[in-house]
Design goal:
The complex is a heterodimer. In chain A, 71% of the residues lie in helices and 0% in strands. Chain A has twelve helices and no strands. Chain A is globular, with a radius of gyration of 19 Å. Chain B is mainly α. Among the domains of chain B are: 1-82, no CATH class; 127-174. Chain B has helices spanning 2-23, 29-49, 53-77, 93-113, 127-135, 140-161, 194-201, and strands spanning 164-165, 168-169. Mean pLDDT of chain B is 80; it is low at 192-208. The chains are: A mainly alpha, B mainly alpha.
């Protein structure tokens, strides 16, 4: 019981500090991509957040107010619930669920619903286009990630994340299943509405689902995206980089370091890659990434036999 | 602990019933789909309470995807692009009421007639492994048949209901309209139309 409480405390510390680090990383990466010094840009996201908290909140004509206001809340809740099955060390896990991977999958699919509701409930054209576009891209990206996760569960012979970590004592999954992490990073980009997979809130839709959102509500949405990035990074570190495994340092420290590494990778990928037109991305997802993920699953299955 | 579980169980079943009822009282297809999703999520959590740890979580997972797809398809096929426009969500009242009463009576009779297991789950029993062995062992044929049948039904439904496409009957191929009424399809060179060209001459023929 006490270890579960300690794990819950660690979980919230990771979410808050991780979201802060993600905001700083976003500022630095955006500056570096434009050839400016990163140091001065570090504070940009924080200044932007402080500005948004004082900005007036505007509204649209007859929005679905309940869903509109609750969407960022649900987003953060899904990040926290998804993170709850990630073990911080062998006996330090908030929710040691036998089907942890399936719970994470449920969080992934509910993120699609939440992002859709965020755009739909504004009752405004750009927000709605972003919402429907995100559903079309987000659902297949999620399906790809489920194939990848099932492949990672095969050597562990369990859907529990503690077992998945223990199965990597000899060899991390990033080397055992080389297709896994790159395909899973696609989900990270899609789950956090980032860079090449930002079909919900992109520039070409003037902000998409958050086009009509201002003030504190906008800040909440951005923070929610960052917390989801932290949860995703911790999950990727656990499934592919051996989670808490590592010499000398305690388990939580290793998990934090690996989470930071994945987070930096996702932030860099968000800056480095361009966005395909939605229809071409849809073809790429169904015709290239999905068969790749399935191939990975078949290879993992044959290995497990 | 057990009394707390009972309270949560009753609250969740109340929530499942309430959201299930609201499905028929709302005037928006999107709201209706997600109210149904909430109802199913409550049922999934109840299954977690009943130690069905895989089925409970998988129910939440599947229902989130299914209801999202359902909302998308309903909006696509019913030509109400936003889904925010109010519309009447119930139809065929008498038939629906009769079907509801028959289904409720049948399910209640089934529950009352069968002996339900009452003993608590022995600790340490590998429920997920047992379920997997059952699904991929004795019941595999049933589940695989049901799965493929459902998939075929979905694909067939979409094909049948989308026969009238945006540019005319889907059986004649997607063809952009002509520049003048009744003219040749716009934006296509004579050579590349191929088989579609042949169809075009029989526009008012005996297709279908």
């Amino acid at each position: 019981m006490t270890s579960a409480l300690a794990a819950i405390a660690l979980l919230f510390a990771l979410l808050v500090l991780g979201a802060l680090a993600a905001a700083l990383a976003d500022g630095a990466a955006a500056a570096l991509a434009r050839g400016r010094p990163a140091g001065a840009a570090l504070a940009v996201p924080l200044r932007r957040a402080a500005f948004l908290l004082h900005q007036q909140a505007v509204t649209t004509e007859r929005p679905d107010r309940l869903n509109w206001l609750l969407a960022p809340v649900f987003y953060v809740v899904l990040a926290a619930v998804g993170l709850s099955v990630v073990p911080f060390s062998a006996d330090l896990v908030a929710l040691d669920l036998e089907t942890g991977i399936v719970l994470w999958g449920a969080c992934e699919s509910l993120v699609v619903v939440v992002v859709f509701l965020h755009g739909w409930s504004a009752n405004a054209p750009f927000a709605m286009i972003g919402a429907y576009r995100y559903v079309a891209i987000g659902l297949p990206a999620m399906l790809v990630s489920m194939f990848v996760l099932i492949a990672a569960a095969l050597p562990a012979e369990s859907l529990a994340l503690t077992a998945v970590v223990e199965s990597q004592r000899g060899l991390w999954n990033v080397l055992r299943q080389p297709l896994g992490l790159p395909l899973f990073l696609v989900l990270g980009l899609s789950l956090t509405l980032r860079g090449p997979f930002d079909y919900a809130d992109p520039y070409d839709l003037a902000g998409g689902t958050s086009a009509e959102v201002s003030g504190p509500q906008r800040a909440a949405w951005q923070v929610a995206r960052l917390t989801m990035l932290v949860a995703f990074s911790a999950m990727a570190a656990t499934v592919f980089l051996g989670g808490y495994l590592g010499p000398v340092l305690p388990g939580p420290a290793w998990l934090a370091l690996k989470t930071a590494l994945v987070l930096a990778l996702v932030v860099a990928a968000g800056q480095a890659f361009a966005r395909l037109p939605p229809s071409r991305m849809l073809s790429a997802l169904w015709l290239v990434l999905m068969p790749l993920a399935f191939l990975g699953l078949v290879i993992a299955g044959v290995e497990a036999l | 602990m057990t009394i707390l579980t009972d309270i949560v169980f009753v609250l969740l079943s109340g929530f499942a019933l309430w959201t299930g009822w609201r499905v028929f009282r709302t005037d928006s297809m999107v709201r209706c789909a997600f109210l149904l999703m909430l109802s199913f999520i409550a049922v999934g959590l109840m299954m977690l309470l009943m130690a069905a740890v895989y089925i409970g979580v998988a129910t939440v997972f599947m229902m989130a995807v299914e209801m999202m797809v359902m909302a998308l398809f309903m909006v696509m096929f019913m030509m109400n692009p936003a889904g925010l426009n109010p519309m009447w969500m119930v139809h065929q009242h008498r038939l629906s009421v009769a079907a509801g009463v028959v289904a409720f009576a049948g399910l209640t009779a089934a529950v009352l007639a069968s002996t339900l297991p009452a003993e608590p789950l022995p600790p340490g029993r590998p429920v997920v492994r047992d379920l997997g062995t059952e699904l991929l062992g004795p019941s595999m044929l049933i589940f695989e048949t049901a799965g493929v049948t459902l998939l075929a039904t979905m694909v067939a439904t979409v094909i049948l209901s989308s026969r009238r496409g945006r540019f005319g009957d889907a059986m004649e191929g997607a063809c952009p309209p002509g520049l003048e009424p009744g003219g040749a399809p716009a934006g296509r060179a004579e050579s590349e139309s191929g088989g579609g060209h042949h169809h075009h001459h029989h526009h008012h023929g005996d297709h279908g």
